[in-house]
Amino acid sequence: MKAINTVSFNTRTAFQRETEFISVTVAGQLLGLPIGRVHDVFVVSEMTKVPLAQAEIAGLLNLRGRVVTAVSLRSRLGLQEDHRTGRRMAVGLECQGEAYGLLVDEVGDVLKLNPAEMQPNPVHMDRRWVSLSQGVHQLQGVLMIVLDVDAVLAFEAEREAA
Amino acid sequence: MDDLLLEFLTETNEHLETVDVEMVRFEQDPNNQAILSNIFRLVHTIKGTCGFLGLPRLEALAHAAETLMGRFRDGMPVTTPAVSLILTTLDRIKEILGELERHGVEPQGTDDDLIAALDRMSSAESPEPVPAAPGVKSQSVGTLVHQVLERELKPGEVSLDELERAFQQAPGPEPENTSGTLVYQVLERALKPGEVSLDELERAFREAPGPDPVISVKQPQASPVALAAAPRNVPKKEAESSDQAEGSESAAGKVQTIRVNVDTLEHLMTMVSELVLTRNQLLEIARRNSEDHGYKVPLQRLSQVTAELQDGVMKTRMQPIGSAWQKLPRVVRDLSNELSKQIELIMQGADTELDRQVLEVIKDPLTHMVRNSADHGIESPAERRAAGKPEKGVIRLNAYHEGGSITIEISDDGKGLNYAAIRKKAAERGIVSEAELERMSDAQVGKFIFHPGFSTAAAVTSVSGRGVGMDVVKTNIELIGGTVDIRSEQGRGTTFTIKIPLTLAIVAALIVSSKDQRFAIPQVAVSELVRVSPSSEHSIERINGTPILRLRERLLPIVPLSKVMRLSDEEEVNTGFVVVTQVAQQRFGILVDGVFHTEEIVVKPMSSKLRHIQLFSGNTILGDGAVVLIVDPNGLARMVGSGGQSDELQSDTSLEKAIVTADELTSLLVFRGGGDSLKAVPLSLVTRLEEIDASTIEWASGRPVVQYRGRLMPIVSCDGDLEIKAHGMQSLLVFSDGQVSMGLAVAEIVDIVEDKLDVELLAERSDLVGSAVVRGRTTEIVNVAHYLPLVLETWSRSSQERKQGNTLLLVDGSNFFRDMLVPVLKASGYRVQTAANAQDAARILSQGVQPDFIVADLELPGHSSFAFIATLRADSQYRSIPIIGMTLKPDPQMIALARRFKITDVVSKVDRRGLLSALAELGGSLEEAA
Fold this sequence. Notes:
Chain A is mainly beta. Chain A has helices at 73-76, 127-132, 149-152, 155-161, and strands at 19-26, 29-34, 38-44, 57-63, 66-72, 88-95, 98-104, 106-113, 133-138, 143-147.
């Protein structure tokens, strides 16, 4: 739970039209989180599991004296949990006054992209993915899915509706 | 909104609260001028400020109300409609203030209706002028100035206004003299004993016979109150006036308070919480490093300062509970009018302080409960008269500190709970079956009122009877870790007892572990810790897989934490620690793997995503930085209650019954034999429950035996229909006595229940004592003695060898116990005579029977057992005969009583072995003596 290597982002004076994303990888897929929603990125060292919690919640973390709920992005995307031991990265987010840590496989660079270039989700994309995605950016050689942070953290309501 | 307006709103709201309370007091005590003046002053202040801020609606209302109150001051009789009207006006003012707070402007609308009513009331009829003071009215209007002493009057003192009035009414010099010089003087602090207020000084100065005889004032004669009290004050003033004259000291001693925004305090609290956490972390590091780099002393100091700071900040959050009660006098007053009942509200311990967060939560439940007491509890005056009670009902609120929690009692002297109606309603609503209901005690039935939507009120009134409420009350209180209890006596009244923690922010918790994960259990719920292992004194037993711990003769349901948390699938956990937990009436044990230490933890709320999990009340960060979940004992208790099992016998009430020990309850082990019918045997007779591999059963001369604890134990089937298994697992009830044991083979062990045992005897079958209704089902009570001769020639032989057939007289009122004990005693080689009561016993003795011992139930009806024993002891023939007294629960009182009657020994009725060993001991001494 101690957060090492905390990266803080100096939002360099960007071009007005461009949006900045933090790129993360989950199971080889590149995903982007709007930088405005990301508080920090940290390495997860110790996590307290919450018995009886829904599968999406990986546990609780201590981030500088604050209790943060760790949400597994893999589980949100309907992917198998990765049980490799090794360092786990988390992206610190905030939603309705509460702190969350989104567990990802890796954190990549900050990308500056033009929102106009974002393309809608492919029609045949997995429904679960569609509900979490705002659109797709074509980068050189790879596609980056732009995540809807609120949708990613809105899993409880979803379950109740089901 | 500008600051001035904000200030005004806060202040006015506070004033209105006070006026509400004072108004009700005033109605009861209309002659108390001090109260009236206080109200008058407050309303006047409101009016004045409204005018200043340009709030015409409020000003007009306040003015009209003030006018009416002015009339009261002038002696107009105080009537209920008039007070109601003023209270309504206050409500309207509050409404307008509410709007003002939301929108920053006075709402549109007119108050002509109220103002007109107020004006009508004030001008209705000119009161008869007070005969003692003709012309007072005209004088007061011009000259009365508000004088307020900012503290409660001490006995013997008179209020300034009374003095003023007395002064005014006294036939004195020209009124002009007075009116010109009186000034509004307020001392901004409480007076010390022996000091006098500025006004009194001023007065004394003027009243003193001065050089000019014209302005000297005679002692007033008009007001008896003033007359009695004033002379005592006056001389004192004169004595001290010289050094106090300047009042310069008072400025220095002024109590200073400032208003602080609640958010600021909350923030402070959060920061302190963080500080406590960091301190804990530092201490943890210090603990781990044995080497002292010179930081340990400062760290200790830091720790101390932090603790003090925490205390201090907690104090700022403390508020007297009285502030939550402030609305209640008004509520009760309105209700008593509405319901035409006479109700007095007595409040005690209003200065008991508790955390404001807690206070907020209990405010509404308290109001609701008081309303309930007024509506349901207190009867109408006619009913009360008929019941021989004073017409005026009393609702009593009492708050006090107790341990780490606060207890609030709300009691009324009304009619009490109507248990019959509650039972009926509970059955109607299908909460429990009628059969179950029948066996429930009144106390259990009383708890139904906390069920959602439960109301027994015949008619729905505007006050209550809609059945919303008590469940909400309970939920609210449980939410903050509190408990509600109800105690009621038919015709005498009902008392609700609420226990709540002092604060929610920081609690002491026990850190435990289960499967490598740590949890915190709030210390308040923990009553003891018991170490369990299969080989130790305390071991976990299982009934149909449900773990149970026998703890001091009581059965404790065990909840393995790893199981409820689904941390492991392992069913059979037998080692670890049992955290004995008490939640309201429910007691259960939490089985954990390890127990660490207790720690002051800062409770952090659960994430909204996890709040649905009943088992946790929050989380915290421990000294070593780990996040730990806080177990909610209430949630666990609910889980224990509902059990999550289909077994109907494990219902909430059955568990509750098993936990609450009642003297008249007997623990029964319920099992099944060959047929479908349930059988039971008193648990006290059973030594052990075993499950053995059927393949280990051997047959010796056609009889099944098993090697058990290094000996051969005969096995007998509990009924003819049940065959002892040849393979698989065979459940056995083991009965043993000293060296010999017997295994009773049963098909299945069903449950352990505690129930009142009302046995209908069956004469025709020797294997059964009879049948009884246990948990609503007919159950055969097995006669263990029947089986003993079947298998245990050895048993009787071995015991008969030891004893030479001493005769024994057993006196016991209960058929069941007689039937249970006789075979046991016989099997131990005694010749037994029985008597059901003292008369029987006397008759048997008079027939010339000479028993060697008498075993007597000490709880024979009507205390006849002691009388019987006393007569025996008085007779030289029986003076030294050993008497063993049996009681359900040997308590010191009983033992002392027994000693007075020279009863040789006292044993518990259910302790068969104790009885036998007491007899054996006596037998030994008898032989020696012989």
